[in-house]
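[step 3/7] fold_predict: job queued, chain A
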Amino acid sequence: MAPPALLLVFSDPGDAVSEADFNDWYDGEHVPLRVNTPAFLTWRRLRAVDDQSLPWAALYDLTSYEDTQKPSYTTLAETRSDREKDILSRIRLLDRRTYELYQGAPIFPPSPDFDEKVPAPIVTFVMAELTPEGEEEYNKFYDEEHIPLFSKVPGWLRSRRFVLKEWNQLGKEAQSHTPPPKYLAVHEWSTTDAFDTEEFKSTLDTPWRKKVLKDITKLERHIYKHYKSWERK
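[step 4/7] structure written:
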């Protein structure tokens, strides 16, 4: 059975598309069309908590990467409305990344406070590219130390790991030559206050973490807060 997948989309409407028009299109047309598309399981939008990341993100759980190759999914891009085509022609950047659930270790159990029906207020995305010789150690570190330590931080809800399958960009600043990092970790939190706790700070200062950092060739970290979610009726 194919593993579950994830679609992560970062976006910035830029100066040529007003935020009101961007959100009206995204909330009123773009996401609703995906609510009844079989490959999609969850639908949510997030907003960056600072100016270090693109201002908007959308996060979708998918049945599998294979299902994104089927007509019910691919037709979404092939049958864009005139409004969507116009928005995408003027937007600064739409960065789409499709991932598959990491299969190297069992998923770490979520916190007792986690409710899959209630979107986490805060989500952090951590992406890493490794040297070939550093991948095995990085995965062991994440599975055996990093996530278990995160689970002890007050406010932690859930952590999941994914591997990049494909990516593309649209918009005036789109590029096609530098792929994003291979590994993605999605950490869900009840509050940003978690990052100020001693428990969280201690996760960033272990000998094992310092060791694996030497093999990371590219690292991204983004913090977003919940904006809106949808349900299939």
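[step 5/7] annotate
Strands lie at 5-12, 43-48, 56-62, 93-101, 122-130, 156-170, 183-189, 216-230.
The CA atoms of residues 147 and 172 lie 37 Å apart.
exit 0
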